[in-house]
TrEMBL record:
InterPro entries: Arna-like_SDR_e (IPR045869), Epimerase_deHydtase (IPR001509), Lipid_A_modif_metabolic_enz (IPR050177), NAD(P)-bd_dom_sf (IPR036291)
GO molecular function terms noted in the UniProt entry: carboxy-lyase activity
UniProt xrefs under PANTHER family: BIFUNCTIONAL POLYMYXIN RESISTANCE PROTEIN ARNA (PTHR43245), UDP-D-APIOSE_UDP-D-XYLOSE SYNTHASE 2 (PTHR43245:SF13)
UniProt keyword list: NAD
Organism: Rugamonas brunnea
Name by which UniProt lists this protein: Bifunctional UDP-4-keto-pentose/UDP-xylose synthase
Residues covered by the NAD-dependent epimerase/dehydratase domain: 4-255
Taxonomy, superkingdom: Bacteria
Pfam family, one: Epimerase
Amino acid sequence: MKKVLILGVNGFIGHHLSKRILETTDWHLYGMDMSTDRITDILENEAYKSRMHFFEGDITINKEWVEYHVKKCDVILPLVAIATPSTYVKQPLRVFELDFEANLPIVRSAAKYGKHLVFPSTSEVYGMCHDEEFDPENSELICGPINKPRWIYSNAKQLMDRVIWGYGMEGLNFTLFRPFNWIGAGLDSIHTPKEGSSRVVTQFFGHIVRGENISLVDGGNQKRAFTDIDDGIDALMKIIENKNGAATGKIYNIGNPTNNYSIRDLAGMMLKLAEEYPEYATGAKQVKIVETTSGAYYGAGYQDVQNRVPKITNTCDELGWKPSTTMADALRKIFDAYRSQVAAAQALMD
């Protein structure tokens, strides 16, 4: 019976992973976060109360609680991070302080107590890599100039990867996983009207619900390989299980190369799908697609990646995993999940 520690348990990955663990295993789950809006149903579920142990706290403040639970648990997932591009550009120091500095003591505790550290790297570490598919073992990690603070997230995460790899050379049992544009319900709040404050799928979805125009940054020709959250969680469960130590010392891209679409294509797909739902159709009819520049949308320090396709050969072979959800099905699941929230999101226009 594993004891799993999830820091950032109320986040996008955290709450989906918690639900899967409690539904499908006998593992005990220890979670910390500053809020509980995404995990309320889990915390209130009588069937889970003996295995779900939640503490409301902050990794930058409740350091003794964190270290004690790293020592107590078998698998450690520090999922606390800022991952919104507008923050990279406007508050780069905040990104570094949380994503690197606040997570470093947790990494050191995992090494100290001999735990399996499952750490979220990011597809962003590859930066503007020119490879057709990004290979965790061979692709070069290419970032822009210092005057583009957009890259502080990529750099902070890359440095953490290197530190963890260094601890691995000294015996740390670790696995680094790199999510490629995981999408699903609960990614960000659809109630946040400010542009750039959430990830692209949620941003577009909120605009459709409220009948607002969708802005395509620099033409929207940038491509991303989108991955359904449930496919991502399937891979994470196999990493946490770590059968025969297969995931130890490994770096895994977790993405779906077949769901590689431009941001412009994404907007079109979402608008077309919205027409099929009476709850969304009215708002969708009011939406116009407009173009803007990255400078106007994010700020002067932004720079983008034109293509980001994961090489997942080792992920599939070593974990016995493969992504199976099509883009159409992944989007439909999101539209289905939010049907009951449409009125509340529309009220933001009032």
